[in-house]
Amino acid sequence: MAHFAKLNENNVVLEVNVVHNNELLDENGHESEAKGIAFLTAWSGGYANWKQTSYNGTIRKNYAGVGFTYDLGRDAFIPPQPYPSWGLNETTCLWDAPTPMPVEEGKRFTWDEPTTSWVEVTNV
Hints:
Elements: E1 2-7, E2 13-19, H1 33-43, E3 50-53, E4 69-71, E5 76-78, E6 87-89, E7 94-96, E8 108-112, E9 117-121
Antiparallel strand pairs: 1-2, 1-3, 4-5, 6-7, 8-9
């Protein structure tokens, strides 16, 4: 099965739809994103703003989710920025905290944006 993200006019993902691989086959039996888009355009009554995505990240870096943005220049789906202080990792197209999360056995941490730091979760 192939997965396609439906994008709005700002390239924000509205939904993700599944298309059977047979719908992607071209005349030579090779999968084609264009064939999938043509299928979805017909299926949706003419809506044509679709991009293929994949669970394993082989297409467009990240699996598209509702609210993600498709970045044409990076050819990647980027999730919403979780906090203003976090920066985009150009390699993964995911957001990184300004400092790595501590790794301490048996402890959990959460991001505290006002202090731009990790704080231990004590009431679990």
